[in-house]
Structures are given as structure tokens and as C-alpha cells.
Amino acid sequence: KYHHQATDFVIELTETVLLSQSGREQMVLNSLRYLGFKVALDDFGTGYSSLNYIHNYPIDSIKIDATFVRNMLSNTTSEQVVLLIAQLAQLLEVDLIAEGVEDDRALQKLIEMGCHHIQGYFYSRPHNVDELIGIINEKQMKSA
């Protein structure tokens, strides 16, 4: 009906999903990636062992937790954490997504750090499925 490919979707996981270490998670993630889905590790840096997860699981992108992003302009430690995560993403060749972007100053700082994907109120508030379909349809009609 909507003509989407698996490559159009990103499966977001929090670190707690990966805590069981049963091996099943890795098998499922490998299967999803084989089908073309992308996998993102959400709230990176807030959990028990983030580095272990990006080392042991097939991750395509990491999402910087909104707490770090919101505080980075007023807190040097948060700014350094965001910069470190941005550098790590670049070295690992994974996409980087910043959550909690609420203003242009934060956006510009993130761009300087090499982050080009954002989520947050600066771009849009969260929408339910029906609202999102309406927005997509409206944009498609305008571009036609």
C-alpha cells in the first residue's frame, strides 16, 4: 500500500533490550539487517555499557541522549561528552543522531561537531501515526 522498502526503516533499541545477552538478540538484529533494516542504539551514553553494545551488536547509528544535548551549551562536561560521541561515531562509521534539539544554537553546535541528523522540538513535536500520514501526504501534494 505504501511502497516502502526495509531500507526506509530504522529499528531503535535501548540498551536494556540488549541486557539479557542470550544471543537471540544478535541473531534477530543480524536477520533484520540482512533484510535491509537499519538498527540504531537509542539514548547512547546513559546505560550500563554502551561501548560494549556497539562493539558486539550490528549497529548502524547511535543516538545521543537528549540530556547531554540539552545541557551541552551550558555545561562543559556535557559538551565534551557530545563531542566524544560524535568523534566515536565518525571513527566507527555509524550515523549519529542527536535527540532533544530545541534551538538553532544547539543545532549549529551539533553541526560543528559533525552531527547532521537531529530529533527534537526545533524540527518538530512528536506526532501520532494519523498526524504523520497527514503531514507526509500534504508534503507530497505540495511537491507534485
UniProtKB/TrEMBL annotation:
Pfam family, one: EAL
Stated name of the protein: EAL domain protein
Organism in which the protein naturally occurs: Vibrio harveyi
GO molecular function: cyclic-guanylate-specific phosphodiesterase activity
Top-rank taxon: Bacteria
InterPro entries per record: Cyclic-di-GMP_PDE-like, EAL_dom, EAL_sf
Residue ranges constituting the EAL domain according to the UniProt record: 1-140
